[in-house]
């Protein structure tokens, strides 16, 4: 087993019971429920921390809006289906950040973002390890990866190098 294998397996184990409080994951191609506004979608990131009745706490509300570093506070009352692709991506990222997990997995998080928002997002990702959070992101832009990542794993034809 290689050292990277060990870390990946630990994260996979964390994704079991209670994993929703340990691992936040943003895959590609998510579709929001119809007619949901941004504030409510972002609040769904807090579900793992809520009681069975689904009631939010002041801590949940603070977590939701402290996660708005992705720049979506001004969109709070807008229906998600009315947003541009980049705005939607920032909303999904904000939802995952609001989950407040120590491990965050992103599949191509800069998709649909303009260059300014790509830079802001990756600068945020670079700061999060200082808050005790680990980011794993699949990216195709090697220049961005080199600029912002602490570690890079490259794959070619399905093989890690």
Automatic annotation (TrEMBL):
<dbReference type="Pfam" id="PF00005">
    <property type="entry name" value="ABC_tran"/>
</dbReference>
<feature type="domain" description="ABC transporter">
    <location>
        <begin position="21"/>
        <end position="111"/>
    </location>
</feature>
<keyword id="KW-0472">Membrane</keyword>
<dbReference type="InterPro" id="IPR027417">
    <property type="entry name" value="P-loop_NTPase"/>
</dbReference>
<dbReference type="InterPro" id="IPR003439">
    <property type="entry name" value="ABC_transporter-like_ATP-bd"/>
</dbReference>
<dbReference type="GO" id="GO:0005524">
    <property type="term" value="F:ATP binding"/>
</dbReference>
<keyword id="KW-0813">Transport</keyword>
<keyword id="KW-0406">Ion transport</keyword>
<dbReference type="InterPro" id="IPR051535">
    <property type="entry name" value="Siderophore_ABC-ATPase"/>
</dbReference>
<dbReference type="GO" id="GO:0006811">
    <property type="term" value="P:monoatomic ion transport"/>
</dbReference>
<keyword id="KW-1003">Cell membrane</keyword>
<protein>
    <submittedName>
        <fullName>ABC transporter</fullName>
    </submittedName>
</protein>
<dbReference type="GO" id="GO:0005886">
    <property type="term" value="C:plasma membrane"/>
</dbReference>
<dbReference type="GO" id="GO:0016887">
    <property type="term" value="F:ATP hydrolysis activity"/>
</dbReference>
């Amino acid at each position: 087993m290689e050292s990277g294998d060990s870390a990946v397996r630990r994260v996979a184990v964390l994704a079991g019971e209670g994993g929703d409080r340990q691992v936040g994951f943003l895959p590609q191609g998510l579709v929001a429920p119809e007619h949901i506004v941004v504030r409510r979608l972002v609040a769904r990131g807090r579900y793992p921390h809520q009681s069975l009745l689904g009631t939010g706490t002041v801590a949940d509300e603070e977590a939701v809006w402290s996660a708005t570093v992705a720049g979506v506070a001004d969109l709070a009352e807008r229906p998600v289906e009315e947003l541009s692709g980049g705005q939607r991506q920032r909303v999904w990222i904000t939802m995952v950040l609001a989950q407040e997990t120590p491990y965050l997995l992103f599949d191509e998080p800069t998709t649909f973002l303009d260059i300014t928002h790509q830079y802001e997002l990756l600068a945020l990702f670079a700061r999060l390890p200082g808050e005790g959070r680990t980011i794993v992101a699949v990216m195709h832009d090697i220049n961005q990866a080199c600029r912002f990542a602490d570690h890079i794993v490259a794959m070619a034809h399905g093989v890690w190098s």
